[in-house]
Design goal:
Layout lengths: L1 E2 L6 H8 L22 H10 L1 E6 L5 H11 L3 E6 L11 H7 L6 E4 L2 H9 L20 H7 E2 L2 E2 L2 E13 H6 L9 H15 L5 E2 L1 H7 L8 E2 L5 E4 L4 H15 L4 E2 L5 H5 L6 E5 H6 L4 H4 L6 E5 L12 E8 L7 H19 L12 H4 L2 H4 L11 H11 L25 H18 L3 E4 L8
Parallel strand pairs: 1-3, 2-3, 2-4, 8-11, 10-15
Antiparallel strand pairs: 4-14, 5-6, 7-12, 7-13, 7-14, 9-10
């Protein structure tokens, strides 16, 4: 095996969760791309026959995994290409497929939006042709929804990264509050108490947090499921409720408005008592304890508060997916490796030695060793149980093939004085953008303000 993967730190992996991936320009998909068909026996036979598989990935941890696969399948050789390699990811998948030369057999995708972009441009093989639909029950619903769209199954997922809250139990305790609020109504009351009793802001709200929270009760604000239509539903009763709620708390000065693009940076102020983020971000706190408080023990993890405790809604992000590009020279063997790799990477996601998000695999989510881990930073709390429960209930946030919609890229740049005003500007910007890109935009009508 020859590997050329570029080094990447674990914290960079976390940062990539919240970063929009720039994709190839949208255009009409090629008509009727060749799609191989097979069954599990055919895939096994292809692996036994052997192939040299080219994999595009930026993850250095893939090297060891590929060696293990080669050991079990001696007829298969895996060549990993990363940034900087000739004929690697820098070449661009669209151009590579168009030229029909040096097409990789397996590629790493960083978000469902990137997958949707590739599907729209006809660059991915439908894994349903290999029987991938049989794997649906192996993944949490949100992760499966992220790869099953546009009448196909386009990748296999690794991470389901649900929203959660890390909070300082010592600050809440000083304010006389036991545990983190369960509902947003309780959160508002607690924010006022914490500010009055301790001088701390209960949390900071910035572009990353808004981007996540807007999706909690109305997750598919932008969505595409094939063809030339994209649905835009950014302004609706749920999102207006969310922005009005946070506008009130900001006006009352009981939560802090953050201008930092990195939520971790806000915590270095020393007067913010919680971080709203995904499981990977929350766990990331433990890797810089000298910055975020005593080397742990004061921090705890809680589920994201709910608008209605009797009808919970869990949101988050799905990231790291593995796909077979259109034109792969060895699609059957590629799928065999990809299926094995998704399972292997999910297990790595639960590695106690790494900053990890919740794995998309239901089997790994049920691993007792992972569930029972008691990190010292969080005072021995079994935080993975919080993440696992949330991952199972998580709702997928929709596909954006143009990779345009994100509060952190457009909402934070608006001139509107309030979040509610910015929300309307964001929807207008979204509609204008997708129309310019050649989509037919559908909206929810006048309900809640969508136009």
């Amino acid at each position: 095996m020859r590997s050329h993967s570029a080094p990447r730190s674990i914290l960079v992996t976390i940062a990539m969760v919240g970063v929009a991936i720039a994709g190839a320009a949208c255009g009409p998909a090629p008509s009727d791309p060749p799609v191989p068909t097979s069954d599990p026996a055919g895939v096994a036979a292809a692996l036994e026959e052997g192939a040299q598989l080219t994999v595009w990935s930026t993850d250095p941890l893939l090297d060891a995994a590929a060696e293990r696969f080669e050991s079990d399948h001696p007829a298969v050789e895996i060549d990993i290409l990363g940034p900087g390699d000739m004929n690697g990811p820098d070449a661009g998948l669209e151009l590579t497929v168009e030229l029909g030369e040096n097409i990789p057999d397996v590629i790493e995708l960083y978000s469902p939006d990137q997958a949707a972009d590739y599907v729209r441009n006809g660059l991915l093989t439908d894994l349903a042709s290999f029987g991938a639909e049989d794997l649906e029950s192996s993944f949490v619903a949100a992760a499966w929804d992220s790869v099953s769209f546009a009448n196909g199954i386009w990748a296999l997922p690794v991470h389901a990264d649900p929203a959660a809250v890390a909070y300082r139990a010592d600050v809440l305790g000083e304010a006389g509050i036991d545990g983190f609020p369960v509902t947003w109504e309780e959160f508002a009351e607690a924010a006022a108490t914490v500010k009055a009793e301790t001088g701390f802001y209960l949390t900071a709200i910035g572009a990353e947090e808004v981007d996540l929270l807007l999706r909690q009760d109305a997750p598919r604000l932008v969505d595409w499921d094939g063809g030339d239509d994209v649905a835009v539903d950014v302004v609706n009763p749920s999102t207006l409720r969310t922005t009005a709620y946070w506008d009130d708390l900001l006006d009352d000065r009981v939560v802090l408005k953050s201008d930092f693009p990195d939520p971790f940076a806000t915590l270095t102020r020393g007067d913010v008592a919680s971080l709203i983020g995904t499981s990977a971000m929350v766990e990331g706190l433990a890797y810089a304890p000298q910055i975020f408080g005593a080397a742990g023990e004061v921090w705890r993890v809680a589920s994201l508060p709910q608008w209605d405790a009797d009808a919970p809604s869990v949101v988050g992000r799905v990231f790291e997916q593995w796909a077979v590009p259109t034109g792969s020279e060895h699609p059957l063997a590629a799928y065999g490796f990809l299926r094995w790799l998704a399972s292997e990477r999910a297990a790595a996601a639960a590695d106690d030695d790494l900053v990890s998000s919740a794995p998309a695999s239901i089997d790994v989510l049920s691993d007792v060793g992972w569930l029972d881990d008691e990190p010292a930073f969080f005072g021995g709390q079994q935080v993975n149980r919080v993440f696992a429960d949330a991952a199972r209930e998580m709702t997928f946030s929709g596909h954006d093939p143009a990779q345009f919609w994100a509060w952190r890229t457009i909402g934070s740049a608006t001139s509107a004085p309030s979040l509610s005003g910015a929300l309307r500007e964001v929807e207008t910007a979204c509609i204008d953008f997708y129309v310019r890109e050649g989509y037919t935009v559908t909206t929810a009508g006048d309900d809640g303000g969508a136009g």
